[in-house]
Design a protein that fits this description.
Elements lengths: L1 E4 L6 H12 L2 E4 H6 L4 H8 L6 H14 L6 E4 L5 H9 L1 H4 L5 E6 L2 H11 L6 H24 L4 E5 L4 H14 L4
Parallel strand pairs: 1-3, 1-4, 2-3, 4-5
Length: 181
Amino acid sequence: MIVFFGPAGAGKSVQGQMLAARNGWRWLSAGQLLRDTRDPELFAQMRTGGLVDPEKVNKLIGEALDRAKDIDRVVLDGYPRQLAQAKWLIEHRPEHGRDVALVIVLEVPRAELLHRLKVRGRIDDTPEVIDERLRIYRHEMYPVLDYLTEHGVNIAHLDGTGTVGQVHDRIMEELQACRIV
């Protein structure tokens, strides 16, 4: 499993989809799974920018991983976001049958994130929601990355600025250096 980590607007979805398409892997986006849900409680939590109940997200991810059992590798986008989710991902390896080969953290300055999110124009990308997401991301990311590191997961912090192609080239270089591709 390759995990993309970064704040909203960092390019996780674009890069994750490109990587999956290029290699015949499955792209799984926690955000997209949540946006596609019919659960009004989950949808309401997302619209305010807050974190969604980790158990519900774990369930969605677990079901998606089950559906991808025949795919060689999975690219996870935006999951795990909380320590409880990271623990679930590591502790449930026997059930989902996947090791985390690499976490790619896309680093993008705040001003660039705000610009990208303004251009993207999702319904839940209001200035207040964006600020709340960035605050939560900064608060939650370090415990998640620390936990994954303690469990032997490789973490790569990559520059997420530049063109889509430039960022993708950096990602491919890292995957090659880690002998994943």
